[in-house]
Design goal:
single chain; alpha/beta
Amino acid sequence: MSLAKSVVAANFSAAAATYDGWAAVQAPAAQHLVDCLPPGFSPRTILDVGCGTGSLTRRLTERFPFTRIAGIDLAPAMVGTCRAAWPYPHVFLCGDAEDFDAEGNAFDLVASSFAFQWFANKPGTLVRLAQALTPGGILAFTVPVAGTLCELSAAHQEAVQRPLAALDYPPDTHYVSWAVEAGLAVVRAETRPMTVHYPDALSALKSFKGIGAVFKGGAKPLTPREISRLTKVYEDRYRDHNGVPVTYQVLTLIAHR
């Protein structure tokens, strides 16, 4: 594991106890993904990629109560949370999904919610996961795409005169192309904005720590004065009657092997 990924794993592990309370966009995105699976689909085996604390796992077990689920995640504490909640016959592994090897196993459904944005090699990971599907199996995932964190990015640029050191959020069309290149037939690719409001800009910023999210390594930390300026600009530009918004553009993609 690279240093960057070890930092990601440590941050998400530290947030294992708080993640569900802050996952105001991630939870409904996971539910929407499950709701979009084809009627009558009945997988015997499921792989949950980037299972975290089990937000998607829980919804999958509710939809498919007799199906065996395997989960994989970088963060040991989050994997531990899943193991405690869903013991045998379910199994949860601590590891890097980018290096995942099905080792002869195949899954009827490979699902993932809000994990792909953390992968360095997104096209290659799609190929690996496609290869882990049974013939006719389904790959289904949600991921934030271009346009995500638009308010924060604009406020950051105005307040401190440099770009927000956020993750790279490729356009939704890239994911569709990568899925096709991986040999999959895309049957649904829907992008929609999902916005959560916070009482103030500082709470909006704290929400990222609450879910364990970290921005790019090597970024210059904001000084207290810059944070104060950022929160003021954020509030002045974007506060509405609901509070201070954080908007994600969320792609839901479903494809068959």
